[in-house]
Write a structure and sequence with these properties.
An eight-stranded parallel β-sheet has the order 12-6-4-3-2-1-14-13. Strands 5-7-11 form a three-stranded mixed β-sheet, with no helix packed on it. It contains 19 helices and 14 strands. Helix 11 crosses helix 12. By secondary structure, it is an alpha/beta fold. The chain is 48% helix and 11% strand. The two termini are 33 Å apart. The chain folds into two domains: 387 residues, Phosphoenolpyruvate-binding domains (TIM Barrel, Alpha-Beta Barrel), CATH 3.20.20; 42 residues, no CATH class. InterPro entries: ICL/PEPM, Isocitrate_lyase, Pyrv/PenolPyrv_kinase-like_dom, Pyrv_kinase-like_dom_sf. It catalyses: D-threo-isocitrate = glyoxylate + succinate. Keywords: Lyase, Magnesium, Metal-binding. Pfam families: ICL.
């Protein structure tokens, strides 16, 4: 419905109510456009369609990969999307990522916590709702400025500019984009996963990422001590999430199945086997076992039979069982195939380094069974990207017979190498990593889990060093405010960003000429007028 059609529709409704004096159809139309999504479910349905379209576009051409950054506060997500619209003119194929790591570290009432599912589970859907509240406010702010420009054009009698602005309003692109939301290992059993998934979806999430770790033993994907569950346990949770989507009418909701098997050498359970070769038997086949003599059993031994032999799985004092060393990639491939065959849409393989060959090798094996398998990949800050890629170049040069005697592979992070040809080639590989991995390793979506955690720390450190040092106030003015002005950062007008102009517009709608508005000539925000 166009802007003018909304005005006409509002006028018809108002016309049926003789006591609705002072309600202006155009003001109703404006407020309606500034609040396009009335519920989180409206957002989930809208963004699910976007993700499905983007997945199809990627299948047609891997150059159409998608990206996101992890955001731990609504304001951070809002500023990210405002920046994307400013610099690229569109939010197409750019999402938000909601990191369980950052929720634990920054949003728990317990204070900073490690990424072990100890934070309040409801803090995650609360952050989804907060992110979308701020994205909707970004829409309201930008449209409000367009409405003000439209009024100016009309007052000036500039009909052509007025028509241009109305067309821009009709074709307005929202800041609301898909969120890939981290539900960890489901925070409990399958029922708990289902209940929490509903909260995610009701808050607006169209995409839920779930991992195959044991819920009460959950560890960050880049830490040691990870423990996986048998496939049937994980599949039950995937089904639980799908049921939640379908119950709430988001039939095209997206499920990302994450496997931590590459770095997880432990399991808490021996899988139930119905018949030889079934999925439970395949899971157990990776257990590190030793053959035992039935006459020499130890008290309390746990045994399984394998090919007619009695086997004792290696069990730790923690009551966890070990997998055979070197089986991580095989377990990852099996995990991924099983997940896609049982309701997941996308995969996440948590790796220990960003290596296209390693990722692509596993994806090729998965695609032998599931041809359109594709990944969400964590371009993690836990990787030392500089060192990893310099070592990859070093190894490639060595294999090609090039002279690498000027480099110490173990010390390639040193600033002494920053200006070298090796460092330049490594940086170029980092620059093209997302494009190359999308093409060669099946990565549909690239994300950085906790970049804004690091940027907040870095920028705060730089400001504190300057402001509390010799630079004093110049430390803020030169490094922050002046840069905001020069680079056109919208929140230099922080009152406007916080909604003061939206509030003034509403005051005028509600009270007419009697409105007491904040944005008059004495508002200091006017010092930042363009």
């Amino acid at each position: 419905m166009t802007y003018q059609q909304k005005i006409i529709e509002a006028g018809r409704t108002i016309g049926t109510e003789p006591n609705w004096t002072g309600i202006e159809p155009e003001s109703v139309a404006r407020m309606s456009l500034q609040n396009r999504f009335n519920t989180g479910l409206d957002i989930a349905r809208y963004t699910a369609r976007i993700m499905r379209e983007d997945m199809a576009a990627y299948d047609a051409d891997p150059a159409n990969y998608t990206q996101s950054l992890g955001c731990w506060h609504g304001f951070i997500g809002q500023q990210k999307m405002i920046s994307i619209k400013k610099h690229f003119g569109s939010t197409k194929r750019r999402y938000l990522y909601l990191s369980g790591w950052m929720v634990a570290a920054l949003r728990s009432e317990f204070g900073p916590l490690p990424d072990q599912s100890m934070h309040e589970k409801t803090s995650v859907p609360a952050l989804i709702e907060e992110l979308y509240t701020f994205l909707k406010q970004a829409d309201a702010r930008e449209l409000g400025m367009m409405f003000r420009e439209l009024d100016k054009a009309r007052d000036a009698g500039d009909e052509m500019e007025a028509r241009r602005l109305e067309a821009a309003i009709d074709n307005y692109e929202t800041h609301v984009v898909p969120i890939i939301a981290d539900i960890d290992a489901g925070f409990g059993n399958a029922e708990a996963t289902y209940l929490l998934a509903k909260k995610f979806i009701e808050a607006g999430a169209c995409c839920i990422q779930i991992e195959n770790q044991v819920s009460d033993e959950k560890q960050c994907g880049h830490q040691d001590g990870k423990v996986t569950v048998p496939h049937e346990d994980f599949i039950a949770k995937i089904r639980a999430v799908r049921y939640a989507f379908m119950e709430l009418g988001v039939d095209d909701g997206v499920i990302v199945a994450r496997t931590d098997s590459l770095g997880a050498g432990l399991t808490k359970q021996i899988a139930f086997v119905r018949e030889a070769g079934d999925i439970g038997d395949q899971y157990n086949a990776f257990l590190d076992c030793e053959e035992v003599d039935a006459a020499k059993l130890g008290h309390g031994d746990v045994l399984i039979s394998r090919d007619g032999k009695l086997m004792r799985p290696k069990r730790l004092a923690s009551n966890l069982y070990q997998f055979r060393p070197g089986t991580g990639e095989d377990r990852c491939v099996l995990d991924c195939i099983q997940s896609l065959q049982n309701g997941a849409d996308l995969l996440w393989i948590e790796t220990e380094k960003p290596h296209i060959g390693q990722i692509g090798g596993m994806v090729s094996r998965i695609r032998e069974v599931i041809p359109n398998a594709k990944l969400v990949y964590n371009n993690s800050p836990s990787f030392n990207w500089t060192l990893n890629f310099r070592q990859q170049v070093f190894d490639a040069w060595s294999a090609a017979g090039r002279d690498v005697s000027a480099y110490d592979r173990a010390k390639l992070m040193s600033v002494d190498y920053d200006g070298t040809d090796l460092a330049a080639e490594a940086d170029e590989r980092i620059r093209t990593f997302q494009k190359d991995a999308a093409r060669e390793a099946g990565i549909f979506h690239h994300l950085i889990t906790l970049p804004t955690y690091h940027t907040a720390a870095l920028s705060t450190d730089n400001l504190a060093k300057e402001y509390f040092g010799e630079a004093g106030m110049l430390g803020y003015v030169k490094s922050v405010q002046r840069q905001e002005i020069r680079q056109g950062i919208a929140c230099v007008k922080h009152q406007n960003m916080a909604g003061s102009d939206i509030g003034d517009d509403h005051k005028e709608y509600f009270a007419g000429e009697a409105a007491l508005k904040a944005g008059g000539e004495h508002n200091t925000m006017n010092q930042f007028a363009a």
